[in-house]
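Summary for the funding panel

The consortium committed to producing paired sequence-structure records for every protein in the target list. Below we show the first two records in order, beginning with the earlier of the two.
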Amino acid sequence: MSDREEQAKKLTAAIAGLEAQRAALGDAVVEPALAALRDQLSELKTSARDGVTGDERKIVTIVFADITGFTALAEKLDAEEVRTLINACFECLVPIVQKYAGTIDKFIGDEIMALFGAPVAHEDDPERALRASLEMMDAIEVFNRARGTHLGMHIGVNTGPVVAGSVGAHGRRDYSVMGDAVNLAARLVDASESGEIFVGPATHRRTANLFGFQKIPPVKVKGKEEPVAVHRLVGRAAAPKPMRGIEGLRSSLVGRDKELQEIQSALSGLQRGHGSIVAIVGEAGLGKSRLVAETRALLPENVAWAEGRALSYTAGMSYWLAREILRDLLGLKAEASSVEIGMELRKSVETEINDEVIDVYPYLSRLFDIDLADAMEERVKFLGAQALQARILEAFRIYIRARSLRKPLVLIWEDLHWCDPSSLQVLEALLPLTREGPLMVLWVSRLTD
């Protein structure tokens, strides 16, 4: 990875981290800092584009997001009002692309073309593109409610090889990408209807384990002799698992007998009321996730299991990994609303620790932006950032201790090398509980420098 790419990743993570702290710090503090970081990132990307002297071949995920409904509005509003509305809509959508380290390639009327993987590439660009697409769909609904409009959106996503570089004539060159993968993404958005996200075959292969898809009849698109296999994206998978190896092919785990025996011994101890800490650390591709899968296969019926996975772009998002584990413990669906989350969390806390609800529920609810009743809100509204963090850590400790004492519990922290600092503090707070009862904490991480 070049120095420029590394710097861009750090700036993007810093921007995401500030956004995550907006509620605690306030707009007056966050906005000036964000403006400075975004200016730095913009200058970095501009210098990257200006410095391109030749074409570069890359694997890129391309997103075309077309907003519908402006034509009908143009019949009621004058051109200036329509332009203002379009720009306001773009203001809602562009930060979502940037949140996942995507790049806005261009605006084409009321359509956005975004790139994930150029100029800066990440190993999970297809996943980032689909997460951004889902959030843009949600953002349009929020925009409509706030503005009283009836706009729609349909999206086409595809992954494939492109040629990236400067495009244009002397005096006006812009960084862009060209290739068949771009053309197919554009055809997919044309083939989709409002509210749909059509995903090309290469993107689907790379993300099938992370999202919910609906297979639809192959689509005949311009420029292709044969119909294209297309999937409709319907949402995040309830319990996404990292994909390793070849889908549908499973073989016996070789050379890991010692590790499996140690894990099996820890699970046996768990049933006798003894906790443990297990760390699986190694280079990428050495079977760490497979070892976790084998561990789950060994799990006795009377032992509970919850897991979360950090992602390469969540290191700056406070409590991301801890929140994912809590979601799994609560059995939440990916599309659960804040109201549904609040109900499930309250019910679980009351079941596990009824006499300490006031010490747990208000603080864990902060991880999900749940609206609290006045009495609960009073517990948190005047706390400073450090005091709130201390209460959140204690609430986690109380809740997990109660869950593990009722039923032996295994908590899996996957891809810990990408973990956000707040979740690491939660993990640290939970480790002593492994000496008090049947709690196994297992984390998976790559070797880091």
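The next record, for a separate protein in the list, is shown here:
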Amino acid sequence: GVSYHPTPGKVLFLVHLLAYLASIAGNAVIVTITCADSRLHTPMYLFLSTFSFLECGVISAVIPKLLVIFLSGRQAISFPACFIQAFITVFLGSTGFLLIAVMSLDRYAAICKPLHYLTIMNPKTCSLLVTACFSLAFPFITGLVVKVSQLSFCSPLVIPHFFCDLGPLIHLSCSDTSSTEMLAFVLTSFILLTSLIITIIAYSNIVITVLRLPSAKEKQKAFSTCSS
């Protein structure tokens, strides 16, 4: 198995447990209210509830095992569990970055194309965009995790991190990792830069559109819509 650096303690357990429960509760409330209230069946709240679901998944893949380590003092995780944890966190995290770009496009359509917003961001389009985020991230991250799992690992298997991330895992390998590191760099750069570029372009156009509005009230309303 793989060992963690020692950071056990009941205080850390309690702090992380409370933070974990608060985060899960907050995100669960967002998802529940969005599903239960028909008035919130809009693109913005669909994307927001999906993002909350992703956040629940990421922290649930990491924190429960961390709590067990704090409480038991047994700072180890099996290789299969380690790779599963790494896959879930990286996959859901990558999907979240892509979803942020989609959310910025939604705000762009709402502010810059208000007359066509309902036509552009119809339920089918929103569902396709969310599905696209998952579908784009899944093969990339699956391929990367499979590539990392095929490496040879040497002892001591100690991860200088608080969970099984792919970067620290790659550095534990005693085989040639150059191609794996290059693949990780390319995929990470693609996902992050795609999300960043789309978000910057969308919000730049939003700012330009808002500044061109004739009245201060309209500008305030537009910025309020954007910030929500």
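Regarding this second record: The mean pLDDT is 86. The chain has one domain: 2-227.
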